[in-house]
Amino acid sequence: MGPGHPECPGRLDAIEDRLLMTGVGDALDRRDAPKATVSDLELAHDRLHIAAMRGMSQLAADNKAVGGPTTLMLDTDTSMNEFTWDAALRASGAALAATDAVMSGELENAFCAVRPPGHHATRRQAMGFCFFNNVALAAKYALMRHQLKRVAIVDFDVHHGNGTEDICAGDPHILMVSIFQHPFYPFSGDQHPAANMVNVPVPAYTKGMEIREIVEMHWIPRLEEFRPEMIFISAGFDAHRDDDMGQLGMTESDYAWITHRIKDVARRFCMGRIVSCLEGGYVMGPLAASVEAHIRVLADL
What we know:
There is one protein chain. The chain is α/β, with parallel strands linked by helices. Helix content is 42%, strand content 13%. Strands 3-8-7-4-5-6 form a 6-stranded parallel beta sheet, with helices on both faces. Strands 1-2 form a two-stranded antiparallel sheet. Strand 4 (151-155), helix 6 and strand 5 (174-181) form a beta-alpha-beta unit. Helix 7 runs parallel beside helix 8 (252-269).
C-alpha cells in the first residue's frame, strides 16, 4: 500500500513473532498459500474487475521498467503495485485451499493469516485495502465446488463487510451475521439488508460485554435456525479497544469468547468445519495477541 499505510507487511510479521514467542506456532499444521485461479475468482467477481486488477498490477510493473510510478492509487485508501496481483491471488488461494482441507477432513478448521484483506471488495470493485473477497469467494466455492447446501459467514471486523454483503445478499444458501461500528466506513449495512443478512450496527465505544450480549441475542439463534454445514469467519481485530482504526472496546478475551461460541455452533451443526481469514487489525501488539487468542480456541490449545 506504500510507506506509512496501516495495511502493511508488519501485520503478518507481528502475528508470526507472537505465535513463535508463545509456542502456539509449534502446535499448528502450517502451510503456504497457493494461488487462486481466475476461474475460481469468477465465482464471486465480475470478469472485468478481475482483468482490471491484473492489468493494473502489470501496469505498475511496466512503469517500473521505464522509471514511471510504481504505486497506483485506486482510491484515497487503496493502492496497487507490481506484486499486488500475486499477493491477492494467494490470499484468496489460502481461503480456498483451507476450504478443501477442511472439507476433506484433513483439518478440522483453519486460520488464514493473509494480506491483502477482502471483505470490502465487491463483485465489481476494489476498495478499503481489499481487491478480492477471500471469505465470500470461499463460501461460494464451498457451495459450488463441494456441493454444500448452507454455509454461514461471521464478520466481527470493526467495519461493515459491504463487499461480502454485495456478493452474498439474497443467496438463500448463505447466512451472514456481522457486527460493526456505525456510522463508520464504509457507511453501509444499516439500510434494509437482505433476509440472509444479520447486520448489527453498534455505536462507537460499545464494549465487549455488550457485544457478547448481541452475539447471544442476534447471531446464535439465527445460526442455530440456519444449521450451516460450514462456517467462514471474516476475522478483523480492529474492534480491539487499543486499535485506533475504530472506537469499539473489544479485548483478546472477547475474541476468544466469540470464537468459542462460533466453534460450539460448528461442532453441533457442521462437524467443526471452520475457515477463518484475517481482515483488519492495525496496531501490532493488540492484533498479534488477538490472533493468538483466536487461534488457541480454534486449535484447542
